[in-house]
Design a protein that fits this description.
Blueprint: H1 2-19, E1 22-27, E2 30-35, H2 43-54, H3 77-92, H4 99-125, H5 141-147, H6 151-167, H7 172-184, H8 188-206, H9 215-223, E3 228-232
Antiparallel strand pairs: 1-2, 2-3
Helix pairs in contact: 2-9, 3-4, 5-6, 6-7, 6-8
Length: 242
C-alpha cells in the first residue's frame, strides 16, 4: 500500500504539468489546440501573449453609460485603473523574441492608448463637453460644436442625428417614438447630450481609432510558439484554460 501511494505521489506532478502544456483558442469558425514546450513558456505566459498581443492588447473597463441617470456620477476611475493594469502587463510580460513581436507590442500599446484616450474623453464630456474641443477633428466638428453650443444648436444636431438613425433602422417609427418621448421629458437636454455624444461624436471618432489588421500574420507567428497545433473548422471561441 505504501508503494502505491509513493508511486501515485511521484506521477502526480508529471500529470499536472502534462495538463498545462495545452492551450486552446478560437477565431471565427476555427478552433485551435496547441501543445507547447513548458521549458520555453508557462501556460500563463502563453495566455498573456494571446490576450495582449494576439488580441487587442488587454481589456479596458466598459464605460457602461447608457442612461441619463448615470451621467452625473460618471467617473474615469475604472477605466483609469484598467489602463494602468494593462500597461503593467505590457511592461513585465514575457514575449517571444524577434522584431515581429517587438513591433506588435508597440502597436498594441498604441491601440490601447488611443482606445483609452477616447473612451476617457467620452466619460469626461458627459459633464464637461468642452474637453472635446481640445481633441478637435474636422469630420466630427458638427457634434463637437453642437455639444458646446447653444440649446437650439444642441437640439438641432440631435434632430438630424435621429433622422440619420431612422434612415438606417428597420423600425424608424420606434426611433421616432422614443425621440418624441425624450424630447417631452423635463430632462430633454440630458437626453440630447447623451445621444449626441454616444451615437454622434463617439461613432464619428471611432473610425479614427487605429485597430491593427494583420490577423493572418499574427496567427501564423502565434502558432509557431507551439510544438504542434490541431485545427478544427468549428468550435468554441476564445482562449480556454480548461
Amino acid at each position: 500500500m505504501t508503494k502505491i501511494i509513493l508511486l501515485f505521489a511521484f506521477f502526480l506532478p508529471l500529470f499536472a504539468v502534462g495538463q498545462r502544456n495545452t492551450y486552446e483558442w478560437g477565431e471565427g469558425m476555427m478552433y485551435y489546440t496547441g501543445q507547447f514546450d513548458t521549458t520555453r513558456f508557462t501556460f500563463e505566459e502563453i495566455d498573456t501573449i494571446y490576450i495582449y498581443l494576439h488580441s487587442m492588447g488587454g481589456d479596458l473597463a466598459d464605460r457602461g453609460i447608457w442612461k441619463i441617470e448615470q451621467m452625473d456620477t460618471a467617473t474615469t476611475m475604472a477605466i483609469d485603473a484598467s489602463y494602468q493594469r494593462a500597461l503593467e502587463v505590457f511592461k513585465h510580460m514575457k514575449r517571444p523574441e524577434g522584431e515581429f513581436w517587438d513591433s506588435l507590442q508597440e502597436i498594441r500599446i498604441s491601440e490601447l492608448n488611443e482606445r483609452y484616450l477616447y473612451n476617457r474623453l467620452f466619460i469626461l464630456a458627459l459633464k464637461k463637453p468642452s474637453v472635446l474641443l481640445d481633441y478637435y477633428n474636422d469630420s466630427c466638428a458638427n457634434e463637437i460644436y453642437a455639444l458646446n453650443g447653444t440649446e437650439d444648436e444642441l437640439l438641432d444636431a440631435w434632430y438630424w442625428l435621429i433622422q440619420r438613425q431612422k434612415a438606417n433602422n428597420g423600425s424608424p417609427e420606434n426611433v421616432e417614438r422614443m425621440y418624441e418621448a425624450q424630447l417631452r421629458s423635463p430632462k430633454y437636454l440630458k437626453y440630447a447630450r447623451l445621444q449626441l455624444i454616444t451615437y454622434g461624436w463617439w461613432n464619428c471618432m471611432n473610425q479614427f481609432i487605429y485597430y491593427h489588421d494583420d490577423y493572418l500574420r499574427i496567427e501564423e507567428e502565434f502558432q509557431q510558439l507551439f510544438v504542434h497545433v490541431d485545427v478544427e473548422e468549428s468550435g468554441p471561441c476564445g482562449g480556454d484554460d480548461d
